[in-house]
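Lab notebook: predicted structure, single chain.

Context: the supervisor wants predicted structures on file for every construct in the current expression panel, including those that have not yet been purified. This is the next one on the list. No modifications to the sequence; it matches the entry in the shared construct table.
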Amino acid sequence: MKILKISFWALVAALMLLSCMGDQKTVVGQEYGDTDFVNEDFTANKMNFEDLPKDLCEFLNEQDILKGYDNATSVTFDGKNSFMNKNCQFAVIYFNDKSQFIKGSIFITETTVESENWIETWEFKKKRFNSAEYVDNLGMAAIWNGKQRKLEIKMKGYIVAITVPPKMIAKSEVDNESSVKDAAVAIAESTNLF
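Prediction complete. Output recorded below exactly as produced.
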């Protein structure tokens, strides 16, 4: 009986770990050296990290966010909760009902050490997730992770992470199957930082 209980809990733990890490894949045995994702047209940042405000909400536009979401009626912004990062959190409100919202955010973190190894790091980052893909013409490089609904953009001296909410198809019914990549890219382009 004791062995049965231990086996059961080991199986439960394994299933939980598998479900939490379900999008990750092994990078063992994969070939490296792909640099097609590097934006050769990138010349310089439009703004350096130290010039960016702590509250990034000034770079976001409600109408640009709403274009990516059917049934969305408004967006609220909150950049006051920033502790150390430069960020803005926003909530997409659906069906004119303030109780029907899903949050997204934009975070910018400084990279203190800038080296040529960033290319290998970003290649590894893309190969690590099944739902990851490169996005052209944003910063030095950009990766979209569909499972996390996150767009990461490499700039000189900092990294921008935009996490977008999923779509809603009905009240209290989230659509986790539809892609929101276009919404994330549109938000990034509308900031005018790239």
